[in-house]
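To whoever is on call:

I kicked off a structure prediction for a single chain this morning and the downstream step that reads the tokens threw a length-mismatch warning. I double-checked the sequence; it's 442 residues and nothing unusual in it as far as I can see. Pasting both halves so you can look.
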Amino acid sequence: MSRYDTQDIIYALATPWGVSGLAVIRISGAGCRQALAPFFSRPEALLEAPNATMVHGYLHDEGQQRIDEVVLAINTEGHGYTAEEAIEVTSHGSVAVIQAILALLGRIGMRSAEGGEFTFRAFIHGRMDLTQAEAVEELVSSVSQRSRSLSLSRLEGRLRARLDELKDRLLTLLAAVEVQLDYSEDEVDEFVFPAASLSSLIASIQTLVDSYQVGRLYKQGARVVLAGQTNVGKSSLFNLLLKEERSIVSPYRGTTRDYIEADLEVGGIPIRLYDTAGLRESDDLVEREGIVRTERLIGEADLVIHLVDSTDLQDIPAEDERTIVVYNKSDLAPVGADKLAISAQSGEGVSRLLSAVEERLKRSLPAGGDEELVIEGERQWRLLEGAKNALLRAEELARDDGVLDVVAVELTEALGYLGELTGEVRSDDVLERIFSGFCVGK
């Protein structure tokens, strides 16, 4: 973590670059108020402001030329996001104003923050553990309301609390084994290994491991491909689902020659939806290339919505785990009630189709568990797997009357994995990997 010198005063733009009503610039580090005061129109008010208060005034440069009217939000040491002395500068959202303020901060001895450096300081000062720090970035990058909700739950400390509970249970197990190892048989009662407690602990960790499938779905989403013969209504359905005219719709076969993609959300799941070239034999080189791309997308898709023309029931594919057969143009030729029928022109049946898509995408998710306690990160999944496997080895050793000191080693290894999850056990390489992926303002 050599890039993160915690003795420096750091600053960064916390709002996006570009023209806006307001911009926010974050400053953190001991002495930041003293450093900024000579360039603020009310220096005494800034220096004397208590924690969690705001000061209004003007920033000016070294020649007393005003830069902008600002509001400074003050956090004293031990408070705020980083638990350091900090200032948040709210200015007008002009690019010229932002550039002038950032340039001033650099000239007066502050340093531009690295990616994730504010959150890193919050972590090292004990404001959050690693699971909460990761939740910050997961919340910022959320692309669905469900992912946002789950990230916020982790940021509030629900995962941290669950891990603390698991560590306490594991420590109780380890203590029982260590007592047996530390004293001779004539000094303690006959030892009965707490097998039920260990089994229960493994099951609890397995529940968290399984939740990774849920978190990954809501974070990464799913690729859904609209496929079928030419002129079955794929482009019409694509436009209907997006509520905008993205794909060209015409009565001529082969109009769509390459795929078009767009994002939407179904049941809280982010979807990348593809409208594709119609599947048919063609002598047109461009159309044939579009069909090749369509076939490639179908092979890579999480789910394929295969449209069939209700007025021309030919080449109907078989349904499987990745394929939903949908009968379009049901307003022109109704099909049986057991079929999933829609009209891409009128919108009839589309809500039923969306429900079927949601149900199919969620079908592989594990049942049970806490719906609001879900992990998203691969690091967390890997460490939980490591802890579970160490406990499974300990369980097998204890069942086979293995040497207790080896059982204790496995229990200690599991405890180390849980400690890595929260950051109690850590290395600079791990921290670098976690925080370097953050945006600069965080």
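Update from on-call: the warning came from a stale cache, not from the record. Cleared it. Sanity check on the structure: The mean pLDDT is 85.
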